[in-house]
Design brief:
By secondary structure, this protein is an alpha+beta fold. Helices cover about 40% and strands about 15% of the residues. The protein has a single domain, classed as Arc Repressor Mutant, subunit A (Orthogonal Bundle), CATH 1.10.10. The chain is built from five helices and six strands; from the N terminus they run ααβααβββββα. The protein starts with a helix and ends with a helix. InterPro entries: FUR (IPR002481), Fur_C (IPR043135), WH-like_DNA-bd_sf (IPR036388), WH_DNA-bd_sf (IPR036390).
Length: about 150
Amino acid sequence: MAQTKNFRFEELLDKHHLKKTGARLRVLSMMYSKNTATSQPDLESVMSDIDRVTLYRILNVFEEKGIIHKVFDLNGTANYAVCHADCGENHHHDEHLHFNCTNCKNVYCLDDLHMPRLNLPEGFKADSFTLYASGLCPKCSKKSAATIN
C-alpha cells in the first residue's frame, strides 16, 4: 500500500511539473496522512532532517501549485491542508468551512458542508472566500461532556 501511495504522490508531482525529491514526497505523505491542517513548526518537529528553509520552499511551491492551501488558526499561525483535486496553479477552490477547535487547537477543513451563496454588493467581485468557525471538535466535545457528568 505504501508503494501505491508513493506512486500517487509521484504522479501528483509530475502533474504539477515538480521534481520528485524525497523531501517533497515525505511532506506530501505527512500532509495526506493527517485529518487536520498542520503548521510549518509542527512539520519541522516530525521532519527534523528537512531544514526549515527547504520545508518553507516546499510548502510555498505546493501552495502556488494548488496542492495545499493555507488556513490560519486562532493565533494567526499559518496552517496547511490538502487541496481539492480541482485546485490549480495560483487558483484555489477551497471555499469550505475551516473549524478551529478552541481546546486542542486543531484546524479542520469541513469540505462536506453546503456553503451559502455569496451575494456581494454591486461592483464587488470575489475570487475566493474563507469561512471560519471556532468551538469544540468532536473529540474535545466528548471529553468536555464526560467531565461534566
